[in-house]
Amino acid sequence: MVHALDEIRRVLVDGGIMIDMRPILDGWPIEVTSARSSRGTGRVQDLPPGIADDNAANQSIAQAEQDGWFIRQDEAFFPFVYSWDTPSEMEEWIEEEWEDFIRLEEATKQATRSAWASADADARVQVNVKMLITRWRVAAQNLKAASRS
Amino acid sequence: MTIQKDREGNEKKHLHKFADFATSRTRVLEIGCGEGRLTWQYARETRSTIAIDIDADSLRVATIDRPSDLENKAHFSLAKSEQLPFSKESFDMAILAWSF
Questions:
Q1: What's the pLDDT tens digit per position in B39-90?
Q2: Coil, strand or helix: which one is B12?
Q3: Does residue B12 lie in a domain region?
Q4: Which residue pairs from A114-118 have beta carbons closer than 8 angstroms and sit at least 24 positions apart in sequence?
Q5: What is the pTM assigned to this prediction?
Q6: Sign of torsion over alpha carbons A41, A45, A51, A54
Q7: Residue A67 in this model has a pLDDT that exceeds 60
Q8: CATH number for B65
């Protein structure tokens, strides 16, 4: 990842901007929602490979900042909501698309199915993914040169 | 399967707030574009966008799905972020889209 950051600053102009936008594992909450109500049913379980990936990314960017490659300008978290018609669709998606970094415990599956079964007809199931967005400015050319020497 | 992603548009709102495309005619490099879902949300406001990914199938979908008004503005390329096939200082902005 450090190599990628070095390449990115190479192709950016001095003072150029890098926007890093990515999901952060944090036991994303699950909800059954309808127009009339919303009910939390548990959280996804973060898996060690996913946590390791997050840590590696954080360490790489921290190293790049420490080396003076990039200057952090702004940072925020925001929710990115995935929503499905039914609990089984959510379970299928998580097993097929996110199996490497999160899983659902059986109790959470049961709680979600139960809440959805007793909810209004328009109820959907959603996972609120925690997103991090950071704006970085590329350090001036003299700092680039200094850090390479 | 009916899946909805970011119905409230939080991703687009935050990207535009942080990237501030309106202030300059920006040359953008997007890294990890996949099928172009994010690309369509900002490319019109750039001078040019080159979006890369390591998945050729996703890039094929992105090229097919590219809106006609972006044909001369948004381009896709098979490339790794560790070895960018571009010369020094080619871009004003890089967007790392879910890629780390």
A1: 999 999 999 999 999 999 999 999 999 999 999 999 999 999 999 999 999 9
A2: helix
A3: no
A4: A114/A41, A115/A32, A115/A39, A115/A41, A116/A32, A116/A86, A116/A87
A5: 0.91
A6: negative
A7: yes
A8: 3.40.50.150
Of B11, B84, B89, the CB nearest to A80: B11
What are B29's two structure tokens? Answer: 């490099």
Q: Which residues of B touch A18 (CB under 8 A)?
A: 93-96
Residue A1's pLDDT is 81
Q: Which helix (H) or strand (E) covers residue A9, if one does?
A: helix A2-11
Q: Assess A20–B contact: CB distance below 8 Å, yes or no.
A: yes
Q: Structure tokens of A15? A: 């003072």
**Domain residue limits, chain A:** 2-148
Residue B6, in any domain of the structure: no
Q: What is the ipTM of this complex?
A: 0.94
On whether any CB of chain B is under 8 Å from the CB of A17, the answer is yes
Which chain B residue shows the shortest CA-CA distance from A125? B3
Partner-chain contact B18 A19, CB within 8 Å: yes
Q: What is the pLDDT of residue B97?
A: 86
Give the domain extent around B31. 25-81+89-96
What sign for the dihedral angle of Cα B93, B83, A48, A89? positive
Single-letter amino acid code for the residue at B90: S
User: Between A and B, how many residue pairs show a Cβ–Cβ distance under 8 A?
Assistant: 123
